[in-house]
Design a protein that fits this description.
Two copies of one chain form a homodimer. Chain A has about 500 residues and is an alpha/beta fold. Helices cover about 40% and strands about 15% of the residues of chain A. The first copy, chain A, has 20 helices and 15 strands. At the A-B interface, helix 9, helix 10, helix 11, helix 12 and helix 14 of A face helix 9, helix 10, helix 11, helix 12 and helix 14 of B. Chains A, B: It catalyses: pyruvate + acetyl-CoA + H2O = (3R)-citramalate + CoA + H(+). Chains A, B: Pfam families: HMGL-like (PF00682). Chains A, B: It comes from Rhodohalobacter sulfatireducens.
């Protein structure tokens, strides 16, 4: 039975496939002393439209260096969905004599197409494995098991991949038997740890006689992560199956444990729910790592999804009752507080002609009075936040407007808004595929059809900004660009770092 | 089948059984909405000689409060080894009508004695459970299974406790069958998560029909911790066995997850090794949480222990070759650097008559010259540290002296000290049961038998100190007290916060 460590490949989901070269040296040197057969060092890939780092492309100088340092067989993986047979030569010719095993991540639906790819790669002299994803769904692909015979001689290892992290040992045993009935190809197992079943499942696979299993140091890997290499080695050692010096294991575990303090891979309640209910962890990982949504709203969305519904509350469509000449869209920046007096002064001059729309609840405590017309745009998690911001909000002159149904995270109507909540029919102008609060506010404003839209509290960010803040900043800039193409007058009246927002100082508007 | 959550009881190993009352309120209220039957809130205990907090004693006002808040059955646990039948009334009479279930933590060797205790408690009207520890060792107690029949009618639940966290589902199934052959008592399972097998083992126990299983929120519990309540509930829910609102689960998981950032319970390499090799985690928990030993040395010690030896290297006994009038013991404090010039001046006046003994490698870079006679006292982890302090140390005029064999953490002889390492035969004067670096230095000094011992770098601690530093400070004070009882002249020549150290300034000694 062979062991394969895929820390750099699977851990790259957290680091964008960039790793300290010192860490990689420690990794390679430690594994030279550990009873693991293959190290999967990353992807090879055609150029992708996103930034993806060193180990997503594994240029030749990387493969050269690791080949020189490592005494182990090296593997890389290809995403079948992004690679056609005609790409194989350019991607893999440089790997010859450096890489031993080419793995292919295959969706069940593309199994037949992948067989063609495999034949080309095999002819180049590589070992080939199929990492056949979504093992818990295999039964739903009518042709899949019938095709498995064709992997014989074409694929060296056929992996069962527990993509959702939701299978149990009995599922592993059953599926292995099911495949064995069809094909004599050597088998592998790649487990995820959402339910902390990665070890139990892998031990079941080993008992069933699979020929190769995967793990990663500290379990580093997409979402909840993988079987931990240190756990697998410790258990196999205690069973007398392998021998090694624990100092080398500890040497490679230590620095990844430190890295884990930053990236926090590993399972938690949202990953457990997604695993137990076979929901892809790609989406959950985005929600969890952005720290934008509370566990509560993630759990609510997941349990909606697990019950086969995306959202369970449909609201009346928003139609503006009043006519306003001016809409003020309120962001979350501190400029609102800093210029509060002037802003109130400005609104009070024509308050029945002004409608405030809140993109974020953060600044709404500065507008507690119910003299103003106020709309709370409640995208994503904002319903919870609004409720947390005001313990008992008087909703006179206020309504809430949600994005179009169905909403990805479900619908949470905050207290006192039960009969004052509406939804957009669609994103009419701002065609974007998420629940951007700014886009929602603009859509509401456009329906109101004012003479102008003013922005306050769209400050941009200072100092150290999180990845999420950068993303939000870029997204807002794109939205402002789109707004600029429409026939509407808009500008910020508080200081802003957004290039796309023109500014007319709030003070210049006051007499 | 019943579920019992024992977060406060088992989590107390990390917080010394003190918990924020707000956290406890959230805990109790959330569980009011979750399908768990029992909450174990802590211990009841006779006074112990250590500080142990609120939930180790569960005074009546605590039980009153939780009883008023909770809709669940409440449990407390007793340590059988500390409780005799005659203590039962004083400990448990106050629990009547507040507590439903009394659990007793029982070692296999004391099983028979515990039966007597159980009868007394049962007569008081409580439900009783035995948490019978070390299930993987049960077979080694010849009388144990024969006595199990006697639990019928005396014990409501007989728990299999996987104390080491090292069992597998097949062990659970076998042991359950083994007990069932002997007794009809209802069974329970309490799993630990060293090998991330707590869920797999608990599911096996449930399949075998046990009547109650334990878990804790976020797995909080001694050492590697327990089965996670949120994981068990999520899995049972996905299997259609229980229903609940995930918002309540998320509400109680969130604050414990934050607490986990401070205390870092959960499994890691040392706990895996101890689990896989049935080594008690009490000791490992001390090593891991003090952050004093590197993972490397913990692993070395554990793998020694798992091979049935405490240490594998015996060294020649230290016998002083030279006679010195003065010994200077060097601690790790910054005063050594601050007064370096004066210290060197002092030593150089009579350098063949002075021997330096280093309790810590921290200050040894200030004495790089090999003109001085130097001894490195290498307790605990110090061998590794010395090696890391000097990349390539010239050992002329230097030797290393270790504590007596066998050493708890094993023996690490640093590079270049292969033929220059010795050990004490015993701690002759400083009778202490650990590897205190200061005691080791003093023993070495006493063997040299100088006219006086001077201390430098024993500064004590300023500002925010860690729990470990407080412990070290107190330990050193006790050692200085012992030294004071002997007929030897000793004092510090650098500033010190140790009450037990007299001071003669290094400057007063210089002319």
């Amino acid at each position: 039975m062979k062991l394969l460590d895929c820390t750099l490949r699977d851990g790259g989901y957290y680091t964008n496939w960039d790793f300290d070269s010192e860490l990689v040296d420690t990794y390679i040197q430690s594994f030279n002393h550990l009873p693991v057969d293959y190290l999967e060092i990353g992807y090879r890939s055609n150029p992708q439209p996103d930034y993806l780092g060193e180990y997503f492309y594994c240029p030749v100088y990387v493969m050269d260096r690791l080949k020189a340092e490592s005494k182990k067989k090296l593997a890389i993986i290809l995403n079948e969905k992004d690679v056609r047979a005609e790409d194989v030569n350019s991607l893999l010719a440089p790997c010859k004599s450096l890489i031993d095993l080419i793995r292919i991540a295959v969706k069940p639906a593309n199994f037949e197409r992948a067989l063609g790819l495999s034949k080309v790669i095999k002819k180049m002299g590589f070992e080939v494995s199929f990492n056949l994803m979504y093992m818990s769904d295999w039964e739903t692909f009518p042709k899949l098991f019938g095709l498995m015979k064709e992997t014989e001689g074409v694929v060296d290892y056929l992996y069962l991949v527990d993509s959702y992290g939701g299978v149990y040992p009995e599922d592993v045993r059953l599926t292995i038997k099911r495949v064995r009935d069809k094909a004599d190809t050597k088998l592998g197992f790649h487990g995820h740890n959402n339910l902390e079943m990665a070890l139990a499942n892998t031990l079941a696979a080993i008992e069933e006689g699979v020929n190769i299993v995967d793990s990663t140091v500290t379990g580093m890997g997409r979402g909840a992560g993988n079987l931990k290499t240190e756990l697998l080695l410790t258990v196999l050692n205690s069973k007398g199956l392998i021998e090694f010096n624990y100092n080398w294991l500890s040497k490679v575990t230590d620095p990844f444990q430190q890295l884990q303090n930053n990236y926090e891979w590993g399972t938690n309640l949202p990953y457990m729910v997604s695993g137990a209910n076979s929901i892809p962890q790609k989406k959950v990982m985005g929600w969890v790592t952005k720290r934008f949504y509370s566990f509560n709203s993630i759990i609510r969305a997941l349990s909606n999804q697990s019950q086969g519904r995306k959202d369970n509350i449909e609201l009346p469509v928003f139609v503006p009752n009043n006519k306003f000449d001016k809409v003020i869209i309120v962001g979350g920046g501190p400029s609102v507080k800093n210029h509060k007096k002037a802003i109130h002064n400005l609104i009070n001059r024509e308050k029945d002609n002004v409608c405030l729309i809140f993109a974020s609840s953060k600044n709404s405590p500065h507008f507690k009075s119910n003299d103003y017309h106020q709309i709370h745009a409640l995208s994503g998690n904002e319903g919870y936040r609004l409720e947390n911001t005001f313990s008992d909000l008087n909703t006179e002159n206020r309504i809430a407007v949600f994005p179009p149904f169905p909403r990805e995270m479900g619908t949470y109507v905050p207290k006192n808004f039960e009969n004052k909540s509406y939804q957009l029919e669609e994103f009419y102008e701002m065609k974007i595929n998420n629940e951007s609060a700014t886009a929602l506010c603009i859509e509401i404003a456009l329906l109101i059809n004012p003479k102008e839209i003013q922005f306050i509290g769209y400050d941009g960010y200072d100092g150290i900004v999180s990845e999420y803040e950068i993303e939000l900043f870029n997204e807002n800039n794109i939205i402002f660009e789109k707004l600029d193409e429409l026939d509407i007058n808009f500008y910020s009246i508080t200081p802003t770092k957004y290039d796309q927002l023109q500014v007319k100082s709030v003070y210049s508007e006051l007499s």
